[in-house]
């Protein structure tokens, strides 16, 4: 049976279900096709579970170091089983909330695998969706006026170095660990690699990071990345840059894995109980029917879209990880809102991806918005750059966490804000203020004139802006 809709969303992750809610708010008859559980990677395998585990690791570190605050704790230990249970309870609670939200908005959900059909008896143009179910259940056919592809991404593999789920794992496998390894080598020092390195180190695992590039966190401001590297190394995490793994030289033994790492100065052999491959993510575009459309993908397999996230088929949109933009849940929800409003006939305001904040939940944390210093210079701006250390912020001393800094990048000619980049504990809770300043085209002067309550970490935003205005007080 064919069912007609105004819009069908292929994928019920964070981007997909939030987009569906916005469509329903606009009065559109809406359906979601999701093969697994509503909430997708972010809720079940990414943002939420990893941050839940990082919180458990952070609490463990606080307890271990409680004597610094005058609190004596006789015995400490980390229970991975309890941490995983807490993580699962959080996921279940949030999943129930999402399901209730979808029911409230009267959005239809098809729990099957969706494929886009070409022109057929159901529609003269491509875009009908065949929903396939496990077992012998007959397919449903959905005939929408518009389609939004929100199928997300999956961990990328290194050819010849595929995960086995035991000794060689991905982040998906790491979320299901029943016991902690004594040691782990993480291949890839991007966002995922850094967050897992933090977790494993903070719960007592020996950690080694391998990065093919000259800089960990390649997309991050260089000074921020260097500070993160310095602090990670000070913790005891071993880091190798300009290093690659030779898949042919990986040897699995009963209780450990040996791997050969190539560097300019020669090769070294590392031994660990497990290897975590964290070299990025691939778009989930296979077997969803793109070949039945005129939709184009780029050389990296991501769907090509315009400023409103339309594909080459104007009634089909693609949002989130699948289009190769910022692989962040809040980027996907923003893109979904733009897509829905556009297909509904509105003219939504669009933002550059540089206006979308980035958060990295290592220890310390990183938060950023706008251009890096390198990017601003490459674009021809004459920049003014100022930094303020958390050493100058009273609340940082109260918290016992004074490492890191805030960095502001301004257009020297206009004083317009080009970027704010922070590294330090809890900076992900500060970036929202910087995001608002960026959205409203804030200037260094305007940011410096805001009243920041004392004592709070937010004062660092005022201090770094005052420094840019030549009115530095602290630090």
Structure description:
The protein contains 13 helices and 23 strands. The model has no long low-confidence stretch (mean pLDDT 95). The chain is globular. The chain is α/β, with parallel strands linked by helices. Helix 1 (14-25) links the parallel strand 1 and strand 2 (30-33). The strands form five sheets. Strands 1, 2, 3, 4, 5, 6 and 18 form a seven-stranded mixed sheet that branches.
The figure for the number of domains is 3
Query: Could you name the CATH class of the largest domain?
Result: Alpha Beta
- Which segments are poorly predicted (pLDDT under 50) over 5 or more consecutive residues? none
Structural class: alpha/beta
Looking at this structure, what is the CATH superfamily of the largest domain? FAD/NAD(P)-binding domain
What characteristic shape results from the CA principal axes? globular
Q: How would you concisely characterize the structure shown here?
A:
By secondary structure, the chain is α/β, with parallel strands linked by helices. It has helices spanning about 15-25, 40-45, 45-65, 80-105, 170-175, 190-200, 220-235, 330-345, 375-380, 395-400, 430-440, 445-450, 460-470, and strands at about 1-10, 30-35, 110, 115, 130, 140-150, 155, 170, 185, 205-210, 240, 245, 250, 255-265, 265-270, 275, 280-285, 315-320, 360, 365-370, 385-390, 405-410, 415-425.
